[in-house]
Amino acid sequence: MFNRDRWDEILEALNANKFRTLLTAFGVFWGITILVLLLALTNGLRNGVTADFGDFATNSMFMWTQGTSKPYKGLPKGRYFNYKIDDVAAIKSEVSNLKYVSPRNQLGGFRGANNVVRGTKTGAFEIYGDYPEYIKQQPMDILQGRFLSYSDINEKRKICVIGTGVEKGLYDKGEEVLGTYIKINGVNFLVVGTFKMSNSQGDDEQDASTIYIPFTTFGQAFNRGESVGWMAITAVDGITITSIKQQIFDLMKSRHKVHPEDERAIGHFDLSEQFGRVNGLFSILSLVGYFVGALVLMSGIIGINNIMLIVVKERTKEIGVRRALGATPWMIKGQILQESLVLTILSGMLGVSFAALVIWIMNAILDNAGPVENFANPSVGMQVVFTALIILVVSGLLAGLIPANRATKMKPVDALRIE
């Protein structure tokens, strides 16, 4: 129940020595500010580093072939082999909990020799032979037209989808792109769409300088037949690709007569595993942030504890009079605890507000300065604010507990005798 007299007493006690109150409150203010800023900076680092994964499905892996390291069934060590399109069907049918299995082939390379021509303009671009589901593994924004379809796959259509870098390199500004032809290694392809990567934080030159064509058309036009360069494999939600990748490796080793214990023959990059390591690292950094912030906050709490002990000593006679007039020990204890809580929560919430202002300024600077490598959007969620509030309430109670107990242990007669 609201008690105006009690609140008047609290305000009077806090205003009795304003300078002392401000110095005491500053410890809690600074401690909670440091805590929130440390967590915001940790999230900024997390956002910056995880942005390197792009929007590619983080429950995915890439898989390719390498030379064997063990002889097997009469076949020599150091043998090279290729995946075939039949391997894709085998993985889909024999390994459960897979969402997408996308075979891929590549032609050319970033900053390689010129391999694409349009009129008098040429350029060196990455050419990928892909299936339509690849856009679900690597989300991209289709700016004009469309992406690949299964009709393109089945009919081996000579169509392509080009990145913004290809468009800038082969077309004049404002020139119509859809419906035009480009020549890739001497083969004409109709442009049916343009794209940019969904995670683009500027002009990512390598991604923008990419051309996608149907996988089957790639094999026919560039004499790759049924060969598969590598695969992008994504597990279903709730199941990590890390937990089932060994089944895929064992199946491929069996199909290509590779020794079961040959660890080199199949190369892979597990995005799920790498993403998990990054998240684990930043979870530890968040705990460190809480720990360091709590230590700084603790110094402020100790300051409040000490100042409340002084306040209790200064008000010894007042406490004696109240006890003599019938105030119960819990009424005295509640008064001291309430004063401690008010001082702690007010200074703490000011600290949270100040930290929010600093975070807003940091984000405004980042927006104006452009992307910073490995750092983006420092922020904290509402759960951090609620956690800070809980910490402040507990801290306020702890800070006032010892002074409150000391106040209630005074005997009214002894308290009244103190001058």
From TrEMBL:
It is found in: Cell membrane. Residues 291-412 form the ABC3 transporter permease C-terminal domain. Residues 21-248 form the MacB-like periplasmic core domain. Signal peptide: none annotated. The keyword Transmembrane helix applies. It is a multi-pass membrane protein. Keywords: Cell membrane, Membrane, Transmembrane, Transmembrane helix. The chain crosses the membrane at residues 21-41, 287-312, 341-362, 382-402. GO terms for cellular component: plasma membrane. The keyword Nucleus does not apply. GO terms for molecular function: transmembrane transporter activity. InterPro entries: ABC3_permease_C (IPR003838), MacB_PCD (IPR025857), Macrolide_Exporter_MacB (IPR050250). Belongs to the ABC-4 integral membrane protein family. This is ABC transporter permease. It comes from Winogradskyella flava. The lineage of its organism: Bacteria, Pseudomonadati, Bacteroidota, Flavobacteriia, Flavobacteriales.
